[in-house]
């Protein structure tokens, strides 16, 4: 019988970075049309875990939602933008890979998605409407998370977290 090796808290801390990052700018999670503030805190936590930055629109309630949801007690990398469509178009024009998490006929299954090898923006819609139709032409790739249950989709924080881990190469 072989036992599992369990690392202590101090061993885990020693493997992680000693101070928060300023901006990795290689992998960005763009929650451009958020609907529920609780998702932003969860997504921010995942961004920190995988080395990504969070991109959010400037709305009055966003900063409060991020402050409430940031259980890390440290500053995290958050980019605030004014115009989501213009920002997305600019990212694509600069050669950034723009990937959307959405249900679509031509979507790549999450399991077939390779790790990001270039600067990548992962775009999330919201639970009600998804990614707006006028933003879809700005996506280079669409990824779908297969589901066996009766629901059509996961909430934004869970879906974004799964895709971020895949894009980061950690799973």
UniProtKB/TrEMBL annotation:
Q: Which residues form the tRNA/rRNA methyltransferase SpoU type domain?
A: 35-165
Q: Mind listing the UniProt keywords for this protein, alphabetically?
A: Methyltransferase, Transferase
Q: What is this protein called?
A: TrmH family RNA methyltransferase
Alphabetical list of Pfam families matching this protein = SpoU_methylase (PF00588)
Q: Name one GO molecular function term.
A: methyltransferase activity
Listed under GO biological process in this entry are:
methylation
Superkingdom of origin: Bacteria
């Amino acid at each position: 019988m072989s036992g599992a090796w369990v690392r202590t808290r101090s061993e885990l801390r020693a493997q992680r970075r000693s101070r928060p990052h300023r901006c990795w700018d290689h992998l960005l999670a763009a929650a451009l049309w958020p609907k529920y503030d609780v998702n932003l805190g969860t997504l921010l936590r995942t961004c920190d875990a995988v080395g990504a930055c969070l991109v959010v629109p400037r709305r009055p309630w966003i900063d409060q939602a991020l402050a409430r949801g940031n259980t890390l007690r440290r500053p995290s990398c958050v980019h605030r933008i004014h115009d989501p469509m213009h920002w997305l178009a600019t990212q694509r024009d600069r050669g950034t890979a723009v990937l959307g998490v959405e249900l679509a006929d031509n979507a790549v299954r999450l399991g077939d998605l390779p790790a990001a090898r270039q600067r990548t923006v992962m775009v999330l819609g919201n639970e009600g409407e998804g990614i707006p139709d006028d933003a879809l032409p700005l996506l280079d790739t669409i990824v779908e998370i297969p589901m066996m249950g009766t629901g059509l989709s996961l909430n934004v924080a869970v879906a974004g977290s799964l895709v971020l881990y895949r894009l980061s190469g950690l799973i």
